[in-house]
Amino acid sequence: MTPDRARLQVPILGGWHSGAVTDTTHTPDQDDLQSLVGDWLDWAACGEALGISVSRVRQLIKEHQLAAAVPAPGTGQQVPAAFVQDGVIVKGLPGLLTVLHDGGYDDRESIQWLFSEDDTLPGRPIDALRENRGSEVKRRAQAMAF
Predict the structure, then answer these.
(1) DSSP code of residue 10
(2) pTM of the model
């Protein structure tokens, strides 16, 4: 059998998988996340807004300085536009994302929490960060994560 015709057998629960790639990027709450966030930036647009390269955007996502998710089927990972303000990452966001990731939240869950209404703040955590009211947001994230 030639290498291009060889099929990798991968163990999965209940049997073996042929190794064919299936789209696992779309989840049932995907449409909710897209409407919850509103405006998204692809990596190139995010890089342009921050004045950095696409590879640096990728690195910032990997380091949890930014978070990205797939907002709609057929699109790649994108960054919520609200994460960028006046050409820089919103103050306090990188530290907050680190706290959430250390507590077991993935990018999608972090984005969902940041953009969900919280009447006790008041408003959304992302809005509080953008308005320089990040201390209470970070306290809540620490309490949730640990």
Answers:
(1) E
(2) 0.76
